[in-house]
Write a structure and sequence with these properties.
By secondary structure, the chain is an all-alpha fold. The chain contains 16 helices and no strands. Helix 14 packs antiparallel against helix 16. The longest helix is centred in the first third of the chain and has 36 residues. Pfam families: ArsP_1 (PF03773). Keywords: Cell membrane, Membrane, Transmembrane, Transmembrane helix. One of its GO terms (cellular component) is plasma membrane.
């Protein structure tokens, strides 16, 4: 009886004489299935990405004349004018402010702050508040700087006063306010006094009522990045701050333009005719819009339906309390601190704005 003959080819030998492993029987089918799934995934993504384009193109073809007529309307033209004016006026100051902030973050060591502050917390608070005019920074940069100061032994009250004053009273912000309100130096002085008064009052309030368990100190260093050159730190900080704040500027400009065009004058008069309604209304608007302090004066100047004191409240509250700052403070110091501190700061800023506006404006 003939024996069965194995017709399977012998395994090939490798360069070292050992037999090479034969691929599994289902490997080719598995590779084919993976390729098919990848092709389907790419196709589905392309369809999902192209669908909005096709829909917008179809709408443009069907309703092109109507869309063109709407864009040429007086309301849309007014919206474009207000939006463009705010962005064009605000971007140069925003860039200058982020340049200064990035330079301080990269080249100024944290020990500079500890050496110039008095050891007495009551005296350190106004000195730290005034230091915001000498060492400016944007809102986003002031939170990590304040955390770094606390970690290096600076009393929390002084660090918090600097956190509030640095983005509010620095020279770039004051010059931008002067440009946004030409021929009205009283507005610049009112912003400086109200902002400094708010920051100092909050520092002293923390000395009197603050508790250590409310404040969670940062666990990681917030100073210079290890093994990174100062030039690299400057570049990264500038890129982050400008792109981040620039996005809020565009959103704020669009919201202000929409507010000016869409809100009926009767509604504006309901708030603008009453000082007690206009102040908290624009204070809340500043929290929601979260416009960078280097550009918020141009947004405030466009809110012509409100009194100068109400617009002052918008500029004083914005650099100290807004949605992004509350988030940053919660992540750095804890949610319990952020809720208490932001609420107290908002009330103090509105009250100081009303007092200073009544005095100067």
């Amino acid at each position: 009886m003939d024996s069965e003959v194995d017709m399977t080819p012998p395994p090939r030998a490798g360069g070292d004489g050992r037999a090479l492993a034969r691929p599994p029987a289902g490997a080719d089918r598995k590779d084919g299935a993976d390729g098919l799934r990848a092709a389907l995934r790419v196709t589905s993504h392309a369809l999902l990405a192209g669908l909005p384009v096709v829909l917008l193109g179809g709408l443009a073809v069907l309703f092109g004349p109507e869309i063109t007529a709407a864009l040429e309307g007086r309301a849309v033209a007014a919206w474009r004018t207000v939006f463009t004016a705010i962005v064009i006026q605000g971007v140069p100051f925003l860039l200058l402010g982020t340049l200064v902030s990035a330079a301080i973050s990269a080249f100024v060591p944290a020990w500079v702050f500890t050496r110039v502050l008095p050891r007495n917390p009551v005296l350190a608070v106004p000195v730290a508040g005034a230091a915001g005019a000498v060492l400016p920074g944007c809102e986003c940069a002031s939170v990590p700087v304040a955390g770094s100061l606390m970690r290096r032994g600076v009393t929390p009250a002084a660090a918090l006063a600097f956190l509030l004053s640095a983005p509010a009273i620095n020279p770039i912000v004051l010059v931008a306010t002067y440009v946004a309100f030409p021929g009205n130096p009283e507005m610049v002085a009112a912003r400086l006094i109200a902002s400094l008064l708010t920051s100092v009052a909050m520092g002293w309030l923390w000395i009197r009522l603050g508790r250590e368990e409310w404040l969670r100190l940062p666990k990681r260093p917030t100073g210079h990045t290890p093994r990174a050159s100062r030039a690299e730190e400057f570049r990264v900080s500038l890129q982050h701050d400008f792109l981040h704040a620039g996005g809020f500027l565009v959103v704020g400009a669009a919201a202000a333009a929409t507010f000016n065009v869409a809100v009926p004058h009767s509604v504006l008069r309901t708030f603008s005719d009453s000082l007690w309604l206009s102040l908290p209304a624009l204070g809340l608007l500043a929290v929601i819009l979260a416009v960078c302090s280097e550009a918020d004066a141009f947004v405030a100047a466009s809110l012509t339906g409100f009194s100068p004191t109400a617009r002052l409240a918008f500029m004083v509250v914005g650099p100290m309390v807004d949605l992004k700052l509350i988030t940053l403070q919660a992540g750095t110091f804890g949610r319990a601190f952020a809720l208490r501190f932001s609420s107290a700061t908002w009330v103090t800023a509105v009250l100081c704005s009303g007092l200073v506006g009544w005095w100067l404006l």
